[in-house]
Design goal:
about 375 residues, alpha/beta, seven-stranded parallel sheet, 13 helices
Length: about 375
């Protein structure tokens, strides 16, 4: 690392995700920031609003020369630009060439070979993937043995997609991000184990939503590392328009359209679902295991926030800060496996006061039930 306070370059630093990360890092202090993107004027406006030790720089994520120029002198590069799947691994290669650590709020565009000379890389440091991967660890931290534990996770969101978010969402469906209707059981992925869409009640959401089983690679990694007996993940939809649009995409009905047209269809559908309603993002994890005397026991964790981009930015900021401090060992890691769950939750509550975290209890209608055990003031 260079002398003085570490320098963190934020690619896409004036976008919704990058600016949230920058605000969190400035508030925590102890680092310098370089805010970059294709629009130097927007970067300069962002720096002026942030205050602190910040500088603006132009950075074109589609130009390797521009990326390498931007990251030169940085200790860590935090990649918040998008669409991530269209930009590929250029930012990661630029960080490796500069000898800088690397943090990506997405999944790093797949498990391709690490760039030559890469130091420390933390991938999937966002909301989902990222915060979603911390749920199994949060629930199993104080419980052993795990061999008989069954984990179920849910991600429910309501809000209009951005064009960039829609492109990344669609591309992730074809990039091995997860497996529809699969379940982790007895140390392996069981394909076709679960039924399709179902109406379910999910803790933290005041009414039933439509769930679709989609076993993510993130959860597979956590289930394997934690030794869970079973693991399931569900994407859930609060409205019919977005689900209908995605079903058309999965069925191939829209594949003759351009990616841009498909993404705009997702933006329109998500906007229709959210009309006149308050946006939200809920991550829910449930762990079932035999308690004392074999009594069936359940632990529940619910994280609810208002702004998915801001939540993603804060998780990315925590990861970048940990890398800058040298607290993440050299090598390539997924955020859900190396970040401390409670530190991430504390950061979300500090920087996003609308975030609600409920642990170790039942949640009904979005309100903690009587007898809920709250730890460290989490609510």
């Amino acid at each position: 690392m260079s002398g003085g306070a570490p320098l963190i370059g934020i690619l896409g630093g004036y976008g919704a995700v990058g600016e949230a990360a920058a605000r969190a890092l400035v508030a925590e202090g102890g680092v310098r920031l370089r805010i970059g993107g294709r629009n130097p004027e927007a970067a300069a406006r962002c720096v002026a609003a942030l205050g602190g030790e910040c500088e603006a720089a132009e950075a074109d994520a589609r130009s390797q020369e521009s990326l390498e120029r931007f990251v030169r002198g940085c200790d860590v590069l935090l990649h918040c630009a998008g669409p991530a799947y269209e930009l590929g691994d250029g930012p990661r290669r630029a960080a490796a060439a500069a000898g800088a650590g690397y943090v990506d709020v997405m999944d790093g565009c797949g498990p391709g070979p690490a760039p030559a000379g890469e130091r420390t890389a933390v991938l999937s440091a966002g909301l989902s993937p990222g915060l979603s991967g911390l749920l199994p660890r949060l629930l199993t931290d104080e419980w052993q043995p795990r061999e008989a534990a069954r984990f179920s996770g849910y991600y429910v969101s309501l809000g209009a997609f951005t064009r960039t978010g829609a492109v990344d969402y669609l591309l992730s469906l074809d990039r091995g991000y997860g497996t529809p209707r699969a379940q982790w059981r007895d140390g392996r992925v069981v394909h076709g184990a679960l039924r399709g869409t179902e109406r379910r009640e999910v803790a933290g959401v005041p009414h039933p939503v439509t769930t679709y089983p989609y076993l993510t690679q993130e959860l597979v990694g956590q289930a394997r590392a934690l030794g869970l007996a079973e693991a399931r993940w569900y994407n859930a939809f609060d409205g019919r328009h977005l689900l209908d649009a995605l079903n058309r995409f999965r069925a191939g009905d829209d594949r003759s359209d351009s990616l841009e047209a498909q993404a705009l269809a997702v933006v329109r559908a998500s906007t229709l679902d959210a009309l006149g309603r308050t946006p939200y993002h809920v991550l829910c994890g449930e762990l079932e295991f035999p308690g004392p005397g074999g009594t069936p026991t359940r632990r529940t964790a619910v994280i609810r926030g208002e702004d998915g981009s801001a939540m993603t930015g804060v998780v990315g900021a925590v990861a970048a800060r940990e890398v800058a401090r040298g607290r993440i060992p050299r090598g390539v890691h997924r955020a859900g496996q190396v970040l401390a769950p409670r530190e991430v939750l504390d950061a979300l509550r500090r920087h996003l006061p609308g975030t609600v975290v409920v642990l170790d209890g039942e949640v009904a209608g979005g309100v903690a039930a009587d007898g809920l055990v709250l730890e460290d003031g989490l609510l």
